[in-house]
Amino acid sequence: MYTIKDVALKAGLSQATVSRVINNHPYVSEDKKQAVQKAMVELGYVPNSSAQRLRNIKTKKVAVLISRIVNPFFSQLVDAMEQKAAKHGYQLILCNTRISPEKELDYFQLLQSKQVDGIILAAAENKWEAIAPYTKYGTVIYCNEYDPNATVTRVRLDQVEGGYIGTKHLLDKGHRKIGYCQGNDSSVSVNRRKGYLKAITEAGIEPNPEWMFKDVFTVENGREIFRHIATMDNPPTAFFTGSDEVAAGMIKEAQLNGWRVPEDLAVVGFDDQPIATLMDPQFTTINQFTSNIGEKAMEVMLEIIEKKRENKAEDILLPLELIERQST
After folding, report:
1. 70, 82, 224, 247: which sits with the fewest CB atoms below 10 Å from its CB?
2. Alpha helices in the chain (DSSP H)
3. PANTHER family attached here (predicted)?
């Protein structure tokens, strides 16, 4: 968050001069006024005295922050949000952070400058302490991703349970050598990993770091992971991929290399995206009812904006379900 000191440094003036400009003090030259105003615009600085006035203005717009616009999960999620918002006369602004903490904070200028009434974090690249200061400008809630330290509402799933039931399914099929893929260190990825580890340790299996992969997101990443394990002397016989995109890439590459699914490699995805039933074989995955998450998150956001609900530190947990298909 920028301060008067930052504005002064940007404008090349003293903090006292900046304060006089902000408070419309007489006897400040026009060029200094322009320098201060230019610095404020460039930094997105809003004086505290203006913040409360801005907060009371309603734009009927909500911003949704996602990390990868090419991920079909986000397409389905945002579509459900937009439909819910439109029914209540609100517009949705889609913001693609590309997994960048800096870009994510840049989008919060929309809230600070009152271009939107609230922000839904469907992806979160920054810790809560970096986001918390912006809550004085409008409503902020989490959807899917979350920070346990956040003092706002979190609409999400029990991702530990998701990771657990996906891995337990493979254990129940007789697999003992189970690999795991995760994205970055987001709450979703970390908690799914906890579920995976819980399941295999309960089964008395020692986790094998060589079978655990990080920063895996795409179909191509899935192909790369398969090519890597195919060179191992002791490869896993099954994978909980944490993503339908990754699962699809892994299955396709395995088939291209003469591996049979599930006989040589069983695969579980996550999301139950359309690709799960378009592949041959269709693959087992975790349905997290993406449209329901999006609709519920927007419902909560609008209720908070319209003062029908308090924005407090609470988790609204929605269900998920294992969908068994031919890949296992």
Report:
1. 70
2. 4-11, 15-22, 30-43, 48-55, 72-87, 101-107, 109-112, 128-131, 159-172, 187-202, 219-229, 244-256, 275-278, 290-305
3. LACI-RELATED TRANSCRIPTIONAL REPRESSOR (PTHR30146), NTD BIOSYNTHESIS OPERON REGULATOR NTDR (PTHR30146:SF136)
Q: Which fold has domain 61-156+291-317?
A: Rossmann fold (3.40.50)
Residues 47-54 have a mean pLDDT of 60
Mean pLDDT, the chain, integer: 93
Choice between 198 and 41, residue whose per-residue pLDDT is larger: 198
CA dist., res. 327 & res. 266, Å (int): 6
CATH code of 4-54, in short, is 1.10.260.40
pTM for the structure as a whole: 0.78
Fold of 159-287: Rossmann fold (3.40.50)
Domain ranges of the chain: 4-54, 61-156+291-317, 159-287
Strands 321-323 and 285-287: antiparallel
Q: How far apart are the C-alpha atoms of 135 and 301, rounded to whole Å?
A: 13
Note the residue count of the chain. 328
Token duo for residue 221: 């990443």
* CA 125 to mean position of chain CA atoms: 8
Q: What is the pLDDT of residues 170-218, one digit of tens each?
A: 999 999 999 999 998 888 999 999 999 999 999 999 999 999 999 999 9
Assess whether the region 4-54 and the region 61-156+291-317 belong to the same CATH fold. Answer: no
Distance of CA 123 to the CA centre of its chain: 2
Residue 146 pLDDT more than 60? yes
